[in-house]
Design goal:
Number of domains: 2
Structural class: alpha+beta
Largest sheet: 6 strands, antiparallel, barrel
Number of helices: 4
Helix content: 10-25%
Shape: elongated
Number of strands: 8
Strand order of the largest sheet: 1-4-3-2-5-6
Radius of gyration: 22 Å
Strand content: 35-45%
Amino acid sequence: MKLDLRISLPRNLTVTSLLEQRNIPCFCKIGGSFFELAFQAPLPAVAGEVIGWNAEVIDERAPARGGGSYTHYCFAMVTLKQLGTDIYRIFDLSFFNEISGWCPIIIDGALTLPWQDNFQEEIDEIESLFKDKKLSKKQKGIVGSRSDKEDGEA
């Protein structure tokens, strides 16, 4: 998947220098069929529309949020390569998530591997620390009910 940014950037030395940089700070907004990257001072204060994207592919690499107008509303970093007038290829793209940190989506022009949820591994590791410990009746009930749910009995 190739992502492009449609944006009208000023034609000046600052922008020319900026486009030579990797990981330019920006702000991401994704909601419905809308994907915007916005730049703020000291960079030129402009926003552009990302084209060629797929929500599922983005969500596999940066956890989506619910409860608002946007599934992603976060700080981001982008590297751009100019393709034509007001069209730039997104060569690197990462979103910042306050829980998991930077979530790379594209590196060197290629999609990264999908984000891996290690939640079950973390539970297993914690439970292994307590496997030889005596549990109270209440603790046994909690552990037992969780095991039943995993086995599909509850």
